[in-house]
Input
Amino acid sequence: MKFYYYKALPLYVILPPAITVEDERLKDPVHFKHKFDSWENLYKQDIFNSIKEKGQIDPNIACWENNRWRIEPGQARWLAMHYLGFKTQKVVLCVNESKDPDHSKFLSYEHMEVPSDEVRELFTDKRDHVGYDYIYRRWLR
Output
């Protein structure tokens, strides 16, 4: 596995699953209310207020799944950043070179390769089932 950290990847380079740049649902934040409610239940705070006040604290996670590079997890964060007008996102791109397709198009953006034993340091939230723990459970243990 290789991990690449992007401090400022353009927001629309990698999107959540089942969403395209042309997706009409992106015009209506009410359509994704369930995602924002889920975030609030998990973190006990409003995602929009949190990101307005603090910015994007933890990176989104991007991986190859279902025939495309996508944000998974981090969908609610990506959607909130879209509605708040963010132009870039922090991302950890997770690449399994033996099975994932060519990821070279992402290497033209400023990034750094992060050794697997240092990926944890990119995240402030290390609880079960969020942030770093997703990477750990899926690729590192």
Summary: The radius of gyration is 15 Å. The CA atoms of residues 62 and 71 lie 4 Å apart.
